[in-house]
Amino acid sequence: MTVRPVPDASAPALPPAERTGARREPRLRALDGLRLVAALMVAAYHYGGRGGEITHAWGSSPDRQFPTLHTYFAYGCLGVQVFFVISGFVICMSGWGRPLKSFFASRASRLLPAYWAAVLLVTAVFALPMVTYKALSPSDTLVNLTMLQYPLGVDRVLGVCWTLWAEVRFYALFALCVVLPGASRRRVIMFCAGWTLAAAITQGAHQPLLDIVFMPEYAPFFIGGVGLYLVHRDRKDVYAWGIVAVSFLIGQHYAVRSLWNAADPNAFAHRTSLGIVLVVAFGFVAVAAIALGWFGWANWRWLTVAGALTYPFYLVHEHLGWVVVRTLHVGLGLPSAVTFVLTVLSMLLLAWLLNRYVEKPLTPRLRAALAKVR
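Now predict its structure.
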């Protein structure tokens, strides 16, 4: 059965029938805005919610630069989990009714141009004599271009690339289990159920290979996003809501387990378990609200621009942010708050340049080239 396209995100839900055909989805601009919110959460964490190299950039620990806000910035790392929920939704939407070659071409052309540019740019900046951070060796930099440096144990040019490794594994699982045989409601439900069970078994089996494949710590967020896309197609789908509920319950468990830390005067910041659960809930609820069409009124074009900037911003903001923070705060003596805002704005400007001069010309060309390969 071929499903007719819906005119906008607030249109009535489609009937709960088996769907095997593709449909043209309306642009969910609110989802673009949520992407940027998640990216800014991660940036706040990297600039003011943790220790490490950013301490060197500020000249002292960020908890001294932001005596109150650093506690809230520490929750910004959960922007990654929000990203994963969004990714589950978007990948299911974009892969529905699409042949495998087209799906692969779309994903590769979306990720690689900005990623390659970011790796080369960060390497070049860190190689400058006035920059105190060390660039990787030429050999390690070349491996980074493959996006496989994390499993190969090679030093990373971009600190955030570990999340891309999780994304790539999700794409591979979804492509093999859903896109290759052909997307349908039943197949997507079985994929979500099977992956949830496999991730739980993996957790109990303590087998490194299974952990790499099924990534139990992150699977609930991707699966929850896929379930929310099923909700978007049919808001009365009980199975879809069940997938979302189970994914949230498991996902918050992993988030609390890995990110909660006891109150300790020597710790950078204390994340409460309730605070973590609330941020995870925010990610699920926000995507659910968009899936249900509650933000159909947020149809401003600038949100599309915001969504386009999110990926290149996410790639470059951490390491190059260290350089900007040190230049503005230590070099020019600007206040912490001013430095923080200017650093974010400068990274957004750089993201716009990467989008304008790298992604826009190269993405369609790479997609077309990959789509033609036999």
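The CA atoms of residues 169 and 212 lie 8 Å apart.
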